[in-house]
Sequence to fold (574 residues):
Amino acid sequence: MSKQTIQPYQIRVYMNARDLGLKQADAASIAEMSDRTGQRIEAGTHQPNRGRMRDWRTSADPLAGVWEEELEPMLRREPRLQPMTLFEYLQERYPGQYPQVLRTVQRRVRTWKALYGDAPEVMFELRHEPGVMGISDFTELKGVTITINGQPFEHLLYHYRLAYSGWSYAQVIQGGESFIALSEGLQNALSASGGAPQEHRTDSLSAAYRNTGGAGRKPLTRLYDDLCHHYRLRPTRNNTGIAHENGAIESPHGHLKNRITQALYLRSSTDFASVADYQSFIATMVAKLNHQHQAKFEAEQTHLQPLPKHRVADYEVLTARVSSRSTVEVRCILYTVPSRLIGRQLELHLYHDRIKGYLEGQLVVELPRIRVTAKDKRRARCINYRHVIEGLRRKPRAFLYCTWQLDLLPNDHYRTLWRQLKDGFEADSAALLMVEALYLAATQDKELAVAAYLEAQLAAGTLTLASLQRQFQLLSGVSLPVVDVHQHDLGEYDQLLLPSQSVPEPQSPPQTPAPPPHAQPLGNPGTPSHAGAVELRSVLASTLRIGGGPALEPAPQTRPPRGSTPRRKNGFQL
Fold:
């Protein structure tokens, strides 16, 4: 058996046998080795290089002559050179001579940089104390596209984390890394955790720090300084461009987003009915992560500072006067408001996702905040037909020429119905029907039901204004007065037809006015007369007119012949 195949346990077996007094040949037989190997073991020449560093080669160096003369000097001159760059240099300089030396170059460069290259940055393990540091940061969910009712939803995630316990809070943010988003997210996180830490750590957010400020200027923005002062937080930030200094939240970013992504894969859909549903989904994922840190979080809660009674305003305040078109303009976006506010000046509170309008301290309107994402556009409109439907119902023809016509229609279904109405009715009638439908949808909160009824009636060709109003009980409240008619005895008329029947003499009036001199007397007031003496004759009503003179027959009117255009329904005949 050669010395290269001798195992350490064989040597131990051999030496134990020799210690028991066995002969060299017997001990070698027991250890399954040759006598000669046993002799070398006892002489100490079995492993002559044991403990010696390997300084010899068993094969030829594939980079001999080129590493020392060319590649290593290139590395000393520019240590940032990569192995692939050096390999390509060899291929261009010496075509066909170094075809399979890439792995050798990689190992040689790695060894050289470990011996002579620049030292990499050292990462130190930090010890966090309970209740000391809370960290805020914004992150973007990449790799998946979230949609709200089928429409892409651009957003960020605000992420807050307590450094000691690892407790987290996350919130959906619209509109970028603004102070409004930071203020609302941080205050919601502090409220959810039940207290405030001593220190608040961020990166160099422009919403919190004056990154372009000159010498002598305070590094904090006024709003962020007031926010930290209100919650007794000491603001700190990591060095610009060194994200790993916020390692207590940068790495958890990945864990949170990975859990969200996996839950979306399991859900088999990235579409949500509303932003609130999406926020609830995010909160569920965060709760599962927080469950892993529940014990440490409960211990840290006792070290958090109590929260103040009131929050800092997490909105921006603007004022705007409502125009005669029932609109206000905010940051190049036109919004409609209820028409009863026309001419009034509103105080607008701008949040990251909504706008609240106040009139003399009372909330009168809340609007979704719209942002223009296209690079070639700055302006947009947010039109709500419910705000102006009362005025539009009084002027239904305005719908035909209104610049907001398509914006007034709430969705694509109504836009399709509007095209069908224009094709099947006259323009005025189509506008009257659509405005009435929008009025019913707004006042009765039956947007889907009204659209379904319009679609069904248009398909059947039986849509009328009266049927639309009757379907949604708009005419049911109209009540007519009840007239109580008493039929008198018809026998009283017989005395007018029977002259033999006497009629009591009429009572003469106390005073009889003298007739005018030009009037012909109708009878002698001094001579008594009887009603029975009146002779009744039938007179054709068609031969007389009230006021005298025979009635004239109207001349027949002729209508101009109709063209070949198909007949459309008139709105006043519906």
